[in-house]
Amino acid sequence: MSAIIEIKDLTKEFKVLERREGLKGSLQDLFSRNYKTVRAVDNVSMTIEQGEIVGYLGPNGAGKSTTIKMMTGVLEPTSGTILTNGIVPYKNRSKNAQEIGVVFGQRTQLWWALPLVESFKILKDIYQINDKDYNDMLDLYRSLVDIDPLLHKTVRQMSLGQRTLSDILAAFLHNPKIVFLDEPTIGLDVAMKANIRKLIHALNKEKNTTVILTTHDMGDVDALCQRTVIIDKGKMLYDNDIEQLKKFFGSYRILKVRPTGELETQAESIKNELEGFSVRIMDDWISILVDEEKAGVMDVLGRLQRSYKIKDMQLEEISTEEVIKKIYEGGVN
Amino acid sequence: MKKKDLRFYLRIYFKILAQDLKSKMSYRADFIISTIGMIFTNIAGFVSFWIIFRNFPSINGWSYYEMLFLYGFSLIALTPVQCLFDNNWNLRIAVYSGDFIKYCFRPVNLFFYYQSEVFDIKGLGQLAFGIGTLAYSWHHLGLGFDILMLLKLIVFLISASVVMVALQNAAAATCFWIQNSFYVLDLVTRFKDYAKYPITIFSPVFRFIFTFIMPIAFIAYYPSLVILRPDNIEILSLFSPVIAVVFFWISYKIWMHGALRYNGTGS
Ligand SMILES: Nc1ncnc2c1ncn2[C@@H]1O[C@H](COP(=O)(O)OP(=O)(O)OP(=O)(O)O)[C@@H](O)[C@H]1O
Ligand SMILES: [Mg+2]
């Protein structure tokens, strides 16, 4: 194993114009401008090995896309260093581009008016892929997804899901060392999501391609990522195995109850009764997050049964989504 | 990995071009209508030229056929910018919306890759009109014809085209810095209409502007002097190929500078 991406103390700041309000403000803006610096990425460091699938997670505006743009060489870091394949992406954009593939959510990079297969042929020339590798790759694609109906469709005629699938295929076409996928499953239905996850998983196994994936869909994380890196407001919060993360929260379980009476008022009163527990209403259930190291689930249930009449109950393991949410809220360091 | 030489780029260019034409022709109604539109645009341009100048035997020492020569010359010289660099018109939107980022991920020259996306076939009609007009006036002027003249014509036509391309690149690239760059591009495009007149009919102020600041006089006037008035060529005429190369290089640098510092939008 060798490091394919090395990031050290990476920071990116944007200067944005602070616009004043109203007509008077606009006039003032003409003469004196107020710039504000936004620190989109703040002192991030990580090392990624060849062949890993890394889930790069964080709430909206956390700085995920900005980090990816720096790794692809499109943005210049304000400070800190990045090495991908041993080169500085921003300074050797073209050389770096040869070794990476990129998909940016709903922005297709394919030629709008051309059938997919013609886009592939142009990419074959641009990346100088030889005939054998090209045909092998198409055969591999065929074995994974049903591409033949897509090949002769123009990109503009495709549905969003088909287009995303095509973009992902195009990103892997030249067998790059790293593929960046920024929200590849956004807006897709369950079947297409499953399709795309299967594809990414298989290509990673088959070609040992490193994949950096951002998503808000925990299904993607559960299906694909051994490792997650979490950032918020530009700062790194967590970088570890997903299993490790779950283990950390392993003592947490979710107890769901449905008492008689009105749900909201009951939830309020349970909240008062169980001080220090996180109590929420979720789809007709009152859900209580229980840390088993502090109190057993059965004890909690027993306490509740003394004061309420419980119609129904459920016990759940904590999901990845809950874990991540907990981290966003500042659970781990 | 082979070196990315001119052959590499031409190959990609023609591949994209061929596919693009194929797809455009498959929308037949679209294709026919835009062809008809293009013919009428050119006829209208020619008729207005004819109405204005037919009644004057000469303007500032320029005969009707010499004016016609300039007109044809400028039509030809403006073809490459129309056909090959039309995507400059979409640059502002791409930059504003953040779509421009998609051009930044390929291992080829960014300027080339961006411009290669669009080939505007309508420009070819203009080329045909231009050649017709030029040949017609050439004949009436009794300029004679030999290989040397043809060579000169080609060299100076190319320099003229390159000047226009340079102007447009620079104007389009302003969108990397300012938001309302449409007006800059539009202004340059409007000014290029003056390219078809001999610069001597303008006042000295405009003569200076059109030569040194917005050098549209190099799109037809200076280069065609070499053919039309070979006996007393202005020094600027002879230099126009050099000037064209310099302008193009500067505009390319501006364009690339803007593109490389492009920050994109949040996503
Ligand atoms: N070109 C830009 N100019 C100014 N500010 C920017 C620019 N791009 C991003 N930002 C700011 O940087 C921060 C991080 O944005 P970024 O797009 O990286 O977030 P993200 O993690 O990808 O979020 P999301 O999940 O919503 O896609 C945001 O506050 C955003 O407003
Ligand atoms: Mg994003």
Can you put this structure into words, describing what you see?
The complex is a heterodimer of chains A (333) and B (267). In chain A, a hairpin with a 2-residue loop joins strand 8 and strand 9. Chain A contains 13 helices and 13 strands. Chain A starts with a strand and ends in a 5-residue tail after the last helix. In chain A, helix 7 runs parallel beside helix 8. Chain A has a 6-stranded mixed β-sheet, with helices on both faces. In chain A, strands 11-12-10-13 form a 4-stranded antiparallel β-sheet, covered by helices on one side. Chain A is globular. Chain A is α/β, with parallel strands linked by helices and 333 residues long. Chain A folds into 2 domains: 215 residues, P-loop containing nucleotide triphosphate hydrolases (Rossmann fold, 3-Layer(aba) Sandwich), CATH 3.40.50; 67 residues, 2-Layer Sandwich (VC0802-like). Helix content of chain B is 69%, strand content 1%. A two-stranded antiparallel sheet of chain B has the order 1-2. Chain B has one domain. In chain B, helix 5 packs parallel to helix 8. Chain B is mainly α and 267 residues long. The mean pLDDT of chain B is 87. In chain B, 33% of the residues are buried. The complex binds adenosine-5'-triphosphate and magnesium ion (MG). The site of magnesium ion (MG) has 3 residues of chain A, from helix 2.
Main attributes of the structure:
heterodimer, A: VC0802-like, 2 domains, 39% helix, B: mainly alpha, two-stranded antiparallel ribbon, 2 strands, binds adenosine-5'-triphosphate, binds magnesium ion
